[in-house]
Design brief:
By secondary structure, the protein is an alpha+beta fold. The chain has helices spanning 34-44, 140-147, 158-166, 172-178, 226-235, 239-249, 265-270, 304-309, 328-344, 422-430, 433-447, 452-465, 467-476; strands at 57-66, 85-94, 109-117, 120-127, 193-194, 199-202, 208-217, 255-264, 290-299, 322-323. The longest helix is centred in the last third of the chain and has 17 residues, at 328-344. InterPro entries: Catalase, Catalase_3, Catalase_AS, Catalase_clade1/3, Catalase_core, Catalase_haem_BS, Catalase_immune_responsive, Catalase_sf.
């Protein structure tokens, strides 16, 4: 096997990679040592800014396989044939922690999927929970700030979180899930995933259907006891990352069944609840799951940075036959995610191999840092133009399919829908005594040290969900509620 020659980034061979150029054996170091300067300058820039949320995560490559015909709902190519396979990438993550934080934190898990379809890349950026804490993207920076560090102490502060939740009762459904026995998954393989938002599918006749995406683990549900999770946070903070990598490495490929709930536009108009409110679920009795297929994760990245850290997911990546919805949180994410990638990785982030589509692509984007392709070559950089071989629009309405709008432009109070309690109440009633006790204990532990006025305010909400729920937490905190 022939030896590879060490070169600089420009391809020129390097004769000595052990010693800096100095003025004599004792120095000083000379600034014209371009190998030293390049080496140190590159090292200084090896860390791109971490994700503001979902910074700690793991990913793997896989394959999505269609098992049922859903062409009545969509003409997207990846669904057009039973048995069809599409390459994909999955990334799992915690939400609030930094890159060095523990995999076993009590936190929702990001569940992001990228499908490399024949018509472009399609991303579903969801979580392991079917709902979220807030309804409107204008509150997202506020919510995330409560999950980060207190500006004065630079410490995590549960008082910020409970202050925000006590004043944002739409979060109670997600809070109940987060502090339940499913709040700390035992690794990434043993949890369900959800698109969480309402999305849409569009068929060949231009008929749109609203859908919710569900990914059901075929490994079974497994969760960690809080005490065990705390031990692992100290002994093996990369517990879930290690578990996923080792399982795939030894050929134990994890799988998830893919399902949708479907709702017609007419049903949505007349539904008792806002079907585009991400703090609420659709009843599976009224809107049962329909099987679509499954995906299997069967290949680990060769290089974590190139294939996971640089992986860029965004709900703005839609393809013909798929689409968005009026969900306020989703619409905010359509801008925010792609914009975060432009900041984090660079304006040409979609040209990186892990993000580039597998199908041919052509556009009028030009220039910018880290341009990886031919930058359009000698073709025009404006449109419309009269060049025969320049890219032209399709004139099809997909995937930005027309949406009926109504009402005057303005800022509408989303809290006019004050039903914060019925869905978490239904979830609480489904729990057995042991699950209720664990939920109440977890919440009480999280509230230790929080100001009395905040506790009284938030406990009043839990009592409205269910008196047993609120009073149970109050009892553990030695608080007497009226």
């Amino acid at each position: 096997m022939s030896k590879k020659t060490l070169t600089g980034a420009n391809g020129a061979p390097i004769a000595d990679n052990q010693n800096s150029r100095t003025a004599g054996p004792r120095g000083p170091v000379l600034i014209d040592d371009f190998n030293l300067i390049e080496k140190l300058a590159h090292f200084n820039r090896e860390n791109i800014p971490e994700r503001r949320v979902h910074a700690k995560g793991a990913g793997a490559h896989g394959t999505f396989v269609v098992t049922k015909d859903i062409t009545q709902y969509t003409n997207a190519n990846l669904f057009n044939t039973i048995g069809k396979k599409t390459p994909m990438l999955a990334r799992f993550s915690t939400v609030g922690g930094e890159r060095g934080s523990a995999d076993t934190a009590r936190d929702p898990r990001g569940f992001s999927l990228k499908f490399y379809t024949e018509e472009g890349n399609w991303d579903i950026v969801g979580n392991n929970t079917p709902v979220f804490f807030i309804r409107d993207a204008i509150k997202f920076p506020d919510f995330i700030h409560t999950q980060k560090r207190y500006p004065k102490s630079n410490l995590k502060d549960s008082g910020m979180m409970w202050d925000f939740f006590s004043l944002s009762p739409e979060a109670l459904h997600q809070v109940t899930i987060l502090f339940s026995d499913r709040g700390i998954p035992d690794g990434f393989r043993f949890m369900h995933g959800y698109g969480s938002h309402t999305y849409s599918l569009i068929n060949k006749d231009g008929v749109r259907t609203w859908v919710k995406w569900h990914y059901r683990t075929q490994q079974g549900i497994k969760n960690l006891d809080p005490e065990k999770a705390g031990e692992l946070a100290g002994s093996n903070p990369d517990y879930a990352t290690e578990d996923l990598f080792n399982a795939i490495e030894k050929g134990d490929y994890p799988k998830w069944g893919v399902y949708i709930q479907v709702m017609t536009e007419e049903q949505a108009k007349n539904y008792k609840e806002n079907p585009f409110d991400v703090t609420k679920v659709w009843s599976q009795k009224e809107f049962p799951l329909h099987e679509v297929g499954y995906f299997e994760l069967n290949r680990n990245p060769e290089n974590y940075f190139a294939e996971v850290e640089q992986a860029a997911f965004a709900p703005s990546n839609v393809v013909p036959g798929t689409g968005l919805s009026p969900d306020k949180m989703l619409q905010g994410r359509v801008f925010a995610y792609a914009d975060a990638q432009r900041y984090r990785i660079g304006t040409n982030y979609q040209q990186l191999p892990i993000n580039a589509p597998k199908c041919p692509y052509a556009n009028y984007q030009r220039d910018g840092a880290m341009r990886l392709d031919q930058n359009g070559g000698g073709s025009p950089n404006y449109e419309p133009n009269s060049y025969e071989n320049a890219p032209k629009q399709t004139n099809k309405p997909e995937p930005l399919f027309p949406v009926d709008l109504s009402g005057a432009a303005g800022q509408y109070d989303h809290r006019t829908d004050s039903d914060y309690y019925s869905q978490p109440a239904a979830l609480f009633k489904l729990m057995n005594a042991e699950q209720k006790e664990l939920l109440i204990s977890n919440l009480a532990a999280s509230m230790q040290g929080v100001k009395q006025e905040i506790l009284e305010r938030v406990l009043a909400h839990f009592v409205k969900i269910d008196p047993e729920y609120g009073q149970g937490i109050a009892k553990k905190l030695n608080i007497k509620l009226n």
